[in-house]
Write a structure and sequence with these properties.
The chain has 3 domains: 86 residues; 66 residues; 266 residues, P-loop containing nucleotide triphosphate hydrolases (Rossmann fold, 3-Layer(aba) Sandwich), CATH 3.40.50. The chain is of the alpha/beta class. The strands form 2 sheets. Strands 5, 6, 7, 8, 9, 10, 11, 12, 13, 14, 15 and 16 form a 12-stranded mixed sheet that branches. A 4-stranded antiparallel sheet has the order 1-2-4-3. 38% of the residues lie in helices and 18% in strands. Helix 3 packs antiparallel against helix 4 and helix 8 runs parallel beside helix 11.
């Protein structure tokens, strides 16, 4: 036990300090008090403090041994038996279990040191699931130490619905999309300036666009919307966002954005900067806002039979996806089926960030994601696969607004989130009241933006003895005189 404690102190000193910091602080205080009273010659008090010091030390060591060392040893025996049954070894060595880590609310990981290559682990993934009787989300290899391998286990499935709440807002250049097993998944505009939102009809593409539009308006971005359905799915923003649905109007908007891109690049050259953030810091008198163009159905826009109009539209979108990355102009395009005959390869190559819903066949998933992961998604509305550096199953936020909301950021609550290292595009879940809401659900406290419409106060309840079908005037006219009880 002593050897295990010393080894743990050497390897996991920071984690132990974080877990037992108050107990260790008490230990330090007692140690200082012991030395002080011993120096003063008060040996009776010194003896009592020494006894208290050793008792607390034994309690801390025993608690750590019971809660950490013994469970780790039991898990190590458990995995040794599994590896022996599977004959999973390299050069006569089985993987060595290190620790279990509870990363987030929906995932935990088993960490191993091994000589087996990652390819061998992935080939045995289904067999591991059968032995563990748990769903394996992924098997990862550490970027710095190739001998460290982690098995990511789903502790509980993602919710079927997560209502949007303004507590997910962030003042950085981030747009929250939904919840994955690793936390809040976001789109980073500086790293991923453009995005595709693909999926079948009724899967929730328009809902994702609405949620992103709401966040863009909150951040005071300039928003334009191209929707040939006349914006009927975006009625919440009818007084804040201009909807374009005529080809002449759409061409004008795209050309204006291409011109704005050229103008901003000229300004960057004059100011000797290469991005919008540095320009706004260098030239405070000419603040440039970010602009986001949302396209609800890209195929509907590009399928025109007029070759001249089609060429103008394709050229404009290709130019924007290619050049507007640093100038703060972004495209977020919804598309039902990413057919290669409609969307050119150059546009796809310049839009690496993908949000893809479920498809009933594999080909659209392969076109959009390069694999069949969207085909294997469960048939849950709002369930999408997000592709950035990796693929993450995500339950996107369900956005609903009863009435148009103000975008005055001075009256809204801004929330800051801390970043996590992996995945790079995800944020940790905001704090929730675990005792009342173990799941991520919509909080009851409404912000200024999400306040429901004011309702007229209900009339005071009275002791109405007449049937409910009687007119309300009779119940209101009847007033009970409580003075009768006093008499």
């Amino acid at each position: 036990m002593v050897f295990g404690i010393l080894k743990a102190l050497w390897n996991d000193g920071a984690e132990i300090y974080d877990k037992y910091k108050w107990s260790l602080a008490l230990e330090v205080f007692l140690l200082v008090a012991i030395l002080t009273f011993a120096f003063m010659g008060i040996y009776g008090v010194t003896l009592v403090l020494c006894i208290a010091f050793f008792i607390i030390s034994i309690v801390i060591a025993g608690h750590y041994c019971i809660s950490e060392i013994l469970p780790t040893k039991q898990m190590r025996i458990f995995f040794d038996n599994i590896f022996r049954e599977m004959n999973f070894q390299t050069s006569g060595r089985y993987p060595y279990f290190l620790a279990q880590e509870n990363k987030h609310d929906y995932i935990k990981s088993y960490n191993f040191t091994t000589y087996c290559p990652l390819k061998t682990w992935l080939e045995k993934k289904d067999l591991f699931e059968m032995h563990l009787n748990e769903k394996i989300l992924d098997i990862k290899q550490d970027e710095k130490n190739k001998r460290l391998v982690s098995i990511h286990i789903e502790t509980e499935p993602l919710p079927d619905m997560i209502n949007w709440n303004d507590r997910y807002l962030n003042k950085e250049k981030l747009l929250a999309i939904g919840i994955c097993h690793y936390g809040i998944i976001v789109m980073r505009l500086e790293r991923d300036p453009h995005a595709f939102v693909a999926g079948e009809t009724g899967g929730g593409k328009s809902n994702i666009l609405k949620c992103l539009i709401h966040q863009a308006l909150y951040k005071d971005y300039e928003v334009e919307l191209i929707d040939f359905k006349r914006g009927v799915s975006f009625m919440e923003f009818s007084d804040k966002v201009t909807v374009h649905y005529e080809y002449t109007d759409v061409i004008r908007v795209l050309r204006n954005m291409v011109t704005e891109t050229s103008n901003r690049l000229d300004k960057f050259r004059t100011a000797e900067v290469d991005n919008i953030n540095d320009y706004n810091k260098a030239v405070s008198s000419d603040y440039l806002k970010r602009k986001i163009l949302f396209i609800d159905e890209l195929a509907e826009l590009l399928k025109t039979r007029d070759k001249e109009i089609s060429k103008i539209l394709n050229d404009s979108i290709e130019t924007l996806t290619r050049l507007s990355r640093a100038v703060g102009i972004h495209l977020i395009m919804g598309i039902q089926r990413p057919d290669s005959t409609i969307v050119s390869g150059q546009i796809k190559n310049n839009v690496p960030f993908r949000i893809c819903g479920r498809f009933v066949d594999k080909e659209p998933s392969r076109i959009m994601l390069g694999n069949d992961s969207a085909y294997h998604l469960p048939n849950i509305k709002g369930r999408f696969m997000v592709k950035e550096d990796d693929f993450y199953e995500t339950q996107c936020f369900f956005f609903k607004m009863d009435k148009p909301k103000s975008t005055d950021t001075s009256t809204q609550v801004k929330t800051e989130y801390n970043f996590i290292d992996r995945p790079k595009h995800a944020l940790p879940l905001p704090p929730t009241e675990k005792t009342q809401q173990p799941k991520i659900v919509e909080t009851k406290t409404a912000t200024v933006n999400n306040a429901p419409p004011k309702q007229k106060p209900e009339p005071p309840k009275t002791f109405d003895t007449e049937p409910k079908t009687q007119p309300k005037e009779k119940s209101k006219a009847f007033e009970f005189d409580f003075s009768e009880f006093k008499k």
